[in-house]
Amino acid sequence: MSVAADEEAGAVAVLDVGKTNVKLNAVTVDGVVLETLSVANPVLPGPPWRHHDLASLSEWIFSNLEALASRHPLQTFVAAGHGSGGVLVGDDPDATAGAALPMIDYEQPLPEAIRQGYAPLAGSFFDRGSAMMHSATHQARQLFWMQEHAPGAVDAACWYLGLPQYWAWRLSGVAVSEASFLGAQSHLWNVAERRFAPIVTTRSWQRLMPDFADAWQVLGPVRPELARRHGLRDGLRVLAGGHDSSLNHYRYHAAGLTDFIVVSTGTWIVGFCGRTALDRLDEHRGMTLNSDVFGKPLGGVLTMGGREFSHVAGSAPPAAPVPDDVVLGLIARRTMALPSFGDDDGLFPGSAGRGRINGPPPETPVERKALALLYCSLLTTECVEALGPGPLVVLDGSFLRDPLYARLVAALMPNRRVRFNLDAYGVASGAALLASEGQRQRPAPLSLADPGDVSHLSPAVAVYASQWRARARTGHNNSFTRDFERTYR
C-alpha cells in the first residue's frame, strides 16, 4: 500500500514523550512517519521537587495536534513514553493539567530518608524488574516520595497513571493501566507472575491502579470539549499506548520477525529479547525484566551508552564518518576505553565513575570519536551476549549515524546475523502499528540493511575484544590506565 493510500485510510497521531524531548508525529497505519514536530520536555525547579511542566507541555501538544490534523487525516491518537514517568491525577483532566501533585523528574536526586525508607519495601528482583537505579528512577519510588511528602494529596487523588496512559486520559477521560509500561522498571508490577508488586498492597495503592487495557485498545473518542477547544476531528480514537522501547520491539514483531534481539541506541543502549530465559537475568549487570505489549516477559539489558559515548568522544565530535583505518590504528596501539564514565554501573558492577583510557590516548577529535564508537560497540556486544543466543541481531537508533558502528558490531559477533535499521522513528512506527493490531493482513513493511563485508576488521577486533572484556570485567590495570579527566580536561 502506498503512503497516499495509507493516508486515505487515515493517519495516526503518535505522541512520543522522551526524557529530554517530546515528539508529535503523523504516521501512516503502516508505520511510515509523515511529519514530526518536536519540543524540549520542560522541567521546573520546584518546590516540592524538580518536576515536568505538564501545563505548558499540554498547550504545545494540543495546539500542534490541531495543526497536524489540518494537514493529515488523523483518525487515531496513541502515546508512548519513557518508563520512569508517572502522574498522580485527580478527577478533572483539565484542572492543573490533571495532576494532583507535580510529576517528578526522574533525574531529581532523592532525599536520603526517601531512599532508605523505600529500599526495604521494594521486593524481589521480579517484583522490581530491575536493580535499584539512580536518582528518582522507578514509579513506585516516586509514588512513595509523594505519599511521604503529601499523604493528604495522595489520599485525595483518583489514579496513578504511567505517562502514555496519562496522556490517553487527558484526551479521552478514561483511566487505564497497561502491561508494557508497568513492566518497564516501575517496581509496581511483577511481569513474571502478572501481579502487582507487594509494595502496592503495603502502601494501599490498589485503589490508585485502574483496570488494565491492551496497548492497542480503543479507550474512546477524544473528549468533546477538548475537540471543540482545539479543532480536533470528532471521533478521533484514543488508544491506551505503551512503553517506548516495548513499542519499538513491537514494530519488529509486527514486521514478522520472531527469534531476534533488538538493540536500540541513544541516551541508553537498550537490548530486548523475547526468548531470554528468566534465570539468565542478573540485576547486577544492568539486566531487566520487561513486558512486551502482550504482557509477555521481555529479557532486557540497558546501559547509558549515549552518555558514555559523549564522555569519550567529547562535546563536539566530527560529523563525518570515521574511516576504518582510524579505528584499526587505535586497536593496534591497544588504546581502550574502560567502563564506566557516568554514574551508572551498567553491565560492570562497581564501575560507575571509574571510566579510564587505557594505553596511548587518542590524539585527534576523529580518534576520540573512533574510540567512542569502538567502546559502544563493545558495550552493545556485551548487551547481546547477556541476553543469550539468537540468530538475528537488529540494531537501530542514533549510533547508526556512523556506519562504523554497525560494522564493528558485526565484526564482534561473527556467529550472528547483524542487520540494522536506519529509520530513526521506531517508537513512532511501532506505536502507529498498534492501530491495526489484530486486523493486519500482512507483515508491516520493514527495511533492514546489511553492514557488509567486515573481514578486514574481524581478526584485529576479536583479539582486542578479548583483552578489553577481561580488563572491563575484572577491573582496571592501574599501572597502564590514564585518568580520562586529567588527560582531556
Describe this structure as you would to a colleague.
Helices cover 35% and strands 20% of the residues. The longest helix is centred in the last third of the chain and has 23 residues, at 365-387. The protein folds into two domains: 3-240, ATPase, nucleotide binding domain (Nucleotidyltransferase, domain 5), CATH 3.30.420.40; 258-422 and 455-488, ATPase, nucleotide binding domain (Nucleotidyltransferase, domain 5, 2-Layer Sandwich). The protein contains 18 helices and 22 strands. The chain has helices at residues 3-8, 54-71, 112-118, 125-128, 139-149, 151-156, 163-172, 179-182, 198-202, 224-230, 244-254, 305-313, 324-333, 365-387, 403-412, 426-433, 458-474, 484-488, and strands at residues 11-17, 21-28, 33-40, 43-44, 51-52, 74-81, 86-89, 159-162, 189-190, 195-196, 218-221, 237-239, 242-243, 260-265, 269-273, 287-291, 297-303, 336-338, 356-358, 392-397, 417-421, 481-483. Helix 12 (305-313) runs antiparallel to helix 14 and helix 15 (403-412) crosses helix 17. It has 489 residues and is of the alpha+beta class. The strands form six sheets. Strands 1, 2, 3, 6, 11, 12 and 13 form a seven-stranded mixed β-sheet that branches. It has a six-stranded mixed β-sheet with strand order 16-17-15-14-20-21, sandwiched between helices. A three-stranded antiparallel β-sheet has the order 18-19-22. It is globular.
